[in-house]
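Revision sheet: structure tokens.
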Amino acid sequence: MIAVMAGSTGCAIQPKPMTAAEVQDRIRSDHDQMFAQQEPITGPVTLPEALARALKYNLDHRVKQMEIALANRILQSASADMLPRLALDAGYSNRSNYSGGTSMGIESRQVTLIPSTSQERSYADANLNLVWNVLDFGVSKVTAEQKATDVLITLERRRRVMQNIWLDTNEAYWNAVAAQRLLPDLNRLITKTRRALGDSRKMESTAAQNPEVALNYQKRLMKALEELSKLRKEMTLAKARLGALMNLGPGADYRVAVPKGMDVPGQLGRSLEELEQLALANQPELREEDYKTRIRVLDVKKAVLRMYPGLELSLGGHANDNSFLYNNSWFDVALRLSWNLIHAIHKGPAEKREAQAHVELADSRRMALSMAVLTQVWVGHARYQLARDDHALAGEMLRVENRLGELTQRGQQAETRSQMDVVLASAETLAARMRQEVSLAQLHASQARLFHTVGVDPLDYSLFAVKDYAFSQVPVKDLTQQIEQQLARPL
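Predicted:
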């Protein structure tokens, strides 16, 4: 006993934290896998290519693809539960003496037979049994239907991830376009503005300029500098955000393809009522709730099935080399009916009522979500129209600033305006240009948000609606073309 206790103590498992070397190995492995097998960027990145790279390499999207693969594996496992149970067992038995016995008369209490046996001390046997339970088959079939619906739910969740990637990539791309257009001029103007600010301070200190005039001028310069610096900060981070969405390594150098002109989105091709209907039909969250309701309805069906009696059919083949047996091999068949009356009378109806309550709750949840979706459509539609107005106003302000800048330049040539006035006018003109670029990016973002609310997909939904679409096997060029075709379609 002491030896057994000592041995069991030696088998006790102790917590073993990860070592520093194991953590470093994990870091290196994860880093290599995060950026492995990515096609290099060979030119300026267009919006469709940026979206293609984000969909193909984004890690959140990869997780959703793996969840779909897992859901399909679970479905295969659930489908296998519908098959009959086929069991094979074989073995060899040996005992130290014979198995046997005698018989005794019930009334006389006397032994009626001499000790005898019908089994050898050692023998081998084998059995093959096929068992099929009709009730289990029905329940397993409904469960498999639920798992198949779970696959569709994971597809809808991936749709939402793809749409989120589209939304984020679209916003980051247009911010990167604005940054690439304006950052060089912005950096030069900030340097020039700081120089003008320094010159003004020198003039103030030497009394070469009226102190009040100098201070007001410095105040205007500092306000312009503050706005320019804030915009530069946002623009400097724009390409980094886009690179992260495309899963590029930190500090990766690339350029975006800058469209000619403003590339302003036009009016929507559908009315608000049509957008509402599209959103109610296409929103991934609503479609997911539809599938969840289907699962709850199947729960009701399962609860009803479990209240029925179970019918079990079994077929078996047996073999035994025991020499005392008259037949060493045989087949048998059995049919058995069982019924859990307590479950059928009490628990079964309660489970059915519970499942029906879940169906009603799912319906209520879907209707509440539908109302929220309609609100999002209304808000998104209004924001898009307001963004169009803001962009138009930014264009008007830029035209005014350009005109004022021209007048300031002429005034300098006529020696009625100073170089400092020219610098300030240039800063205000560039700030107006930047506000116009930002308003354009916000206009594209508001359009993308509206599409996101409506449930528009960046790729043709038929590509991945039924089975997993192997993004990893599609070249970026082909994926870009598919996205271009999808984006070219009217809403």
